[in-house]
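Protein entry
_____________
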Amino acid sequence: MPGYGDSPPVETVVTAQGRVAFLDRVLQELGMRRPVLVSPSMSGRFSLPFLLERGDRLSGFVPIAPVGTKDYTAEQYRRVQTPTLILYGDRDTGLAPQALQNLQHLPEHRVVVLPGAGHACYLDKPEDFHRALLGFLRQLK
């Protein structure tokens, strides 16, 4: 993601609109039509504005304790019709509860909590994570 890790900062992704355009461009370049967007942690800065603005272009959304959930209102979340799997580890006591509090307003959601897993639940409990993810993917149209 531009501006994170070893990636240089990019001025075009400073705003939510710029991040939506960036993610849209990436999906187009990859030729992806109606993908499932898996969004752990910092990627929430990109995925959440995309979900709220262009969620109809997604088959599903899997937020894993993403940042930025408090930047949007319950009403904004209620307008999203994208099937969503809210996934987090029960040892993530910082970001996960806040994300859940906000994301629970998404009308088409279900929640899976991975016991014994922290913020990076996909690393702590990979088999449980993949079981939950595959179960969600199988139920999508």
User: Anything to note?
Assistant: The CA atoms of residues 55 and 82 lie 6 Å apart. The chain is about 40% helix and 15% strand. Helices lie at 16-29, 44-54, 74-78, 95-103, 121-124, 126-139. The chain has a mean pLDDT of 94.
